[in-house]
Amino acid sequence: MLGSSIVIVSWIFSVPILYQTDGPVLSLFTAISLWVIVSLRIATKHFHLWPFTANLAFLMIVGGGNISSILMLLSAPAVHINPKSNLVMTSIFTSIGLIFFSFYEILLYLRRTPNRFWILDDILIHLALVPGGLSLLGHLFQNPTYLSMSIDPRVGVSILEMFFMFLLFLSTILGNPNLFLWKFLKGGWSNQVTFGVLFTNQYVAPIIYLLFVGSGEKLHPFGPEIFIFFAGVIATLGFLLFQAKIQENKT
Predict the structure, then answer these.
(1) Cα distance between the two ends of the chain
(2) SS3 24
(3) What are phi and psi of 177, to 5 degrees?
(4) Would the pTM of this model clear 0.85, i.e. be above it?
(5) pLDDT tens digits, one per residue of 208-224
(6) Alpha-carbon radius of gyration of the chain
(7) Residue (of 106, 182, 93, 220) closest to 146 by Cα position
(8) How does pLDDT run across 22-38, given as a tens digit for each residue?
(9) Nearest Cα residue to 90 out of 162, 25, 37, 35
């Protein structure tokens, strides 16, 4: 929340942090979305009279705003995008991650994380990390497509943005002890090692592939590495679902 506040103030005074004209920056709209999500968590925890409906309303605004941003970036012609404008929109990948986080927060305010086979809360949090994984590939191998850079090069996933989203992810999983992930990890070191290998493989496997074959031709922004990455994501989520089903059968 403090970091988002600093970014918002810097944009208001026209001195955005780590601003560059030819690369991705952390936009004002991204900072506002992060600020709203974290502020609602703090308000709900420390103000007992904080209205429940306010959480839903603000999260709907965040989710809907990011959906609108995606649609505008996908539909706006190149002539309507001004790279010299002071207005920098949220990148498509970041918006996708914020939408998943918003949906997760809405569900969490409606009910506690249920103890059932369909571990929707764990899935939403995991899917919210997918844009960050693709952005990591983009930064390591200088691929603008994986950085979600559109016509305006500033509209992309910056290093600072990835850091903020990672902090949001950490606070999300640490703030919910009812996630199935924690129950599985408490099963012993073998569970911890297995999940660690699966989770790390999502990011390591495509990186190793790109290190061996190169970053790919410029004419093909997407390569086999994206399928390797999503295969790792599916493997991790499928494994957790399988373990949740086993635990449900035992109980």
Answers:
(1) 40
(2) coil
(3) -70, -10
(4) yes
(5) 988 888 654 444 567 78
(6) 19
(7) 93
(8) 888 899 999 999 999 99
(9) 25
